[in-house]
Amino acid sequence: MDVAIGLIFTYVLLSLICSGIVEFLSAIFKFRAKNLQKVIENILGSHAKEFWKQPLIKSSSHPSKKPSYIPVENFVETIENMILSGFFDKNDKTNFKEVLKKLIEGNGKHMCISPKTESSGFENTIAYFLYKSSSVEEFRRDLGKWYENVRYRAQGWYKRRILKWLFAFGFILALLGNVDTMQITETLYVNSILRDSIVKQATEFWEQHNQQGENSTGSEKEKIANVKLNSRQNAKGKQDFIAELDTHLKILPIGWHGRSFSAITKSPLLFFEKILGWLITAVAVSFGAPFWFDLLGKLVNLRSTGRKPEGIKERDERK
What we know:
Number of strands: 0
Distance between the termini: 25 Å
Number of helices: 16
Radius of gyration: 28 Å
Keywords: Membrane, Transmembrane, Transmembrane helix
Transmembrane segments: 6-29, 162-179, 275-293
Helix content: over 70%
Mean pLDDT: 77
Number of domains: 2
Structural class: mainly alpha
Low-confidence stretches: 107-119, 216-234, 309-315
Largest sheet: none
């Protein structure tokens, strides 16, 4: 179990480094905003340009970039405004609910998006919701559920993309730092002093950050993601976090040495074993820090409950 704790602790630290790199690149290149923009353009088609021009959407955007998140209620209200502007005179003072009610009662047949173009998937979807809705509230609810389903799938696309980035950076980091899972496992197994030292650091690390995560709100995974190691909000916090990572990394059996580098260049078998070890590390990193932090906590708790009290342990040793 101690070997597993040491190995998982290594994955936690590496995952945090790779996650930080991916988060930085995501902010620089606006991955989330671009992902949402692609989703909106896919579901709205030619009406996407009109959607981005709506006041409610523009107010949540910066002039230089699209928003990275649009709440369900904002999406529904924006689509409602687009429907009204497409069918009725903008100066019409009729109550919105009455106008939408007329559309619903007409089963969407009076929907006039553009007489010059054929109906798109978005137009057919709206017409279907109007056709099946018996009230304004039902129409809004169906429209909101539709958007939530689309957004959920988009989050899946984004997560898969992030996993690829984590794997790529995990492999690069494993290669540059010689973070070989098989070598680490072997070293921890034979070196009890190093193993005990790493387990101690891993336990202290988990206890410290888990306590901070308990003070946050949300699900268990959200708490794990909101601990100090993932909430570096100011410059000093970032510096302290980097220093903490550096302290933990120094004790791990990783890194290049003249002997290890020359050995793999002379032995093809050892070279392929190294590649396998790096690949295993990269795959582990792609699972993300929250996963490994949660698993680390379970093993730490299991180890503490299964360990004998000091007094009993000393008596057993004297026997």
